[in-house]
Amino acid sequence: MRIDVVSIFPEYLAPLELSLIGKARQDGLLELNVHDLRTFTTDKHRTVDDTPYGGGAGMVMKPEPWAQALESIAASQMPANSQDEPTKKPVLIVPSPAGERFNQALAYELAEEEQLVFACGRYEGIDERVIEWADEHFTVRPVSLGDYVLNGGEVAVLAMVEAIGRLLPGVVGNPESLVEESHSDGLLEYPVYTKPSSWRDREVPAVLLSGNHGKIAQWRRHEQYRRTAERRPDLLPEFDAGRLTRADRSAFGELGYDVVDGQLRRRPDGDLPA
Ligand code: JFH
To answer: If you take atom 18 of ligand 1, which residue's CA is the nearest one?
Structure first.
């Protein structure tokens, strides 16, 4: 995969040299180029922003430096396509508080792409005409990391490149953990423990030391149910409860959920489990 990032703070992307992603680059699994938007300006002051039409607070990123940067990236040769294969438009990801939400499903989708380009805005964002115009060269995806406001796109890009990069074949050391992850059922993770079994008067749950793999698997499932009901009840209506064992249904029952037509249904407060 090839990734290009455009930013007025290219040093902000330095962490991508480290750890997993840096290793993937060294191993030739990932080509990553970070571009300084200011190198695509033509004025003496290397201006990238101006006042907003219609008024209001803050500044907006000027369109022309973005067009120059994105055209130069679109025109740059894709190394592994010298034999005139049918050429696919790269995906242009534009971090924005107003984008579609980034999630694991989108990470899997983007991990299949040959080339990703990330456009990191600052100030109040990028002149909207750039987003429309870029459609000529790219498949454009405005993407939000979450419902909170960052100061620019760089931190969102660090998160997205890490989430996508670890899905590339050969990047994660133990591919079994990725397989397990891909079969996850949309519930929160179960808690994990390591040695020592007793630490500062806190014991590892005894079932995990029992060697009974059936009981361990059931305990872990029930911990997932408990955590999800407690922390992310919004995930439960999406959960496929159609093939739960009686013990699993009973575990949900104690958490205040009944199974109706293969779906979990919150029981009215105060009602007792069936
Ligand atoms: C970014 C910024 C917009 C104005 C809410 C109402 C009014 C500050 C470029 C992504 C996520 C971002 C993000 C991504 C790119 C940029 C700062 C933009 C406004 C905010 C204020 C500039 C922020 N998931 N959060 N933030 N900014 N808006």
So the answer is: 124
